[in-house]
Structure formats: structure tokens, C-alpha cells
Design goal:
With about 120 residues, the protein is mostly helical. The protein contains 6 helices and 2 strands. The protein has a single domain (about 20-115), classed as Phage tail assembly chaperone gp13-like (rbstp2171, 2-Layer Sandwich). The chain has helices spanning about 5-15, 40-50, 55-65, 80-85, 90-100, 105-115; strands at about 20-25, 30-35. The protein has a two-stranded antiparallel ribbon. The longest helix has 14 residues, at about 90-100.
């Protein structure tokens, strides 16, 4: 087996792992998420954070990561404006912080933000 095949097999395994969840009593909901996202998904978050757009990166992180129990995305890209202007920011910060504490990408994003 070639290294690229082992690398993609490893990543497929990580993507297929079960989801974790965060209780959000203020929304009377649970937000589900996987502990791994693709590099393509990470790239937008890194780009926003590197451009000094931390608030937008935070909301984009929620849009990219948040799932319903069945694995479908909880938010659409079109929800970004509503999330940024009409949703309690402390709840968004809490959710994304809890997600990041369990995500494999946390150290990667922090390293990029420091550079």
C-alpha cells in the first residue's frame, strides 16, 4: 500500500468517527460535531483568522462544524449574517470554544493565528 493510500485511509477513518455534542439550553438544542474537518474547511477559517477577522472566523467555524443529530449541517452559509448580528455572541463563543477544545484542529489554528 502506498503512503497516499494509507494517509487517505487514516483520514477517512477519522471522518467516520462518531460525533460529539454540546448542550445549548438557551437554544433548547444539542449541537453535534465531528472532531475532524477537512483541510478545505480549515482553509477558510485560517484565512479569516489570518486576516484579523476573528469574529467572522468564529461564526464560520460554527457554520462549518455544527451538525444536526443526523449529521446534516445545522447552519447554511446564508445564516452567517443572522449569526453575526442576531444571535447572542456569548453562546456562539461558548459553543465554538467547547468544539475547539475537542477538535484535532485546535492546535493547528492557534499556530496559524500566532504566525
Amino acid at each position: 500500500m502506498k503512503v497516499i493510500e494509507r494517509a487517505t485511509s487514516h483520514f477517512r477513518t477519522k471522518l467516520s468517527e462518531g460525533m460529539k455534542s454540546i448542550d445549548v439550553p438557551e437554544w433548547e438544542a444539542k449541537v453535534y460535531f465531528k472532531t475532524t474537518i477537512t483541510l478545505k474547511e480549515q482553509s477558510k477559517l485560517i484565512e479569516l483568522a489570518s486576516s484579523g477577522k476573528q469574529v467572522e472566523a468564529l461564526v464560520e467555524s460554527l457554520i462549518v462544524k455544527a451538525r444536526n443529530e443526523d449529521g446534516t449541517k445545522m447552519f447554511a452559509p446564508a445564516d452567517k449574517v443572522v449569526l453575526m448580528n442576531e444571535v447572542d455572541p456569548s453562546i456562539i463563543v461558548r459553543i465554538v470554544t467547547e468544539m475547539n477544545s475537542q477538535m484535532d484542529t485546535e492546535s493547528d489554528l492557534e499556530a496559524v493565528e500566532k504566525n
